[in-house]
User: Fold N5-carboxyaminoimidazole ribonucleotide mutase from Kordiimonas sediminis.
Amino acid sequence: MSNDTPVVGIIMGSQSDWPTMKHAATVLEDLGVAFEARIVSAHRTPDRLYEYAKSAKDRGLKCIIAGAGGAAHLPGMTAAMTALPVFGVPIKSSTLSGNDSLLSIVQMPGGIPVGTLAIGKAGAINAGLLAASVMALMDDDLAERLEAWRAAQTASIAEEPVDE
Ligand code: RP5
Assistant:
């Protein structure tokens, strides 16, 4: 992780979410966006959640990526306590394949927004990219790196399929 002051906070409800959420971290690392990663559970550590969300803006964070599974209240409760942009990543749960996580995160009441991503790895990657896009609005060098990242992705896509 970068030594710079974090501008993106990645939070997750459990250590078990990290294999998914590390994909958001990898994107931010690749793009040179300073971030922090913390375990913050809406249910198991509610006081930690309160402290994290309430202090986020004053600590310099510009947006938060929140991953949670099952009864996934972390993104919504975080958004309830900060006006920073919150991107929610539904973790693919073992029992309901992440449909529980998705519905818990996406169906917010009007007035408290959570930008909800896809279930699992793709959602975590895209949350990292969205956070980088937000930061790129204020950072021309990052905007260039983001354009380069996307161009490299485009260039990596073969025109014809091969047998694997
Ligand atoms: C949620 O419960 C976490 O976000 C995690 O996805 C899920 C299961 O947590 P563990 O029982 O694996 O710690 O709070």
Summary: The chain has a mean pLDDT of 97. Helices lie at 18-31, 46-55, 74-81, 99-106, 121-136, 140-155. The chain is about 45% helix and 15% strand.
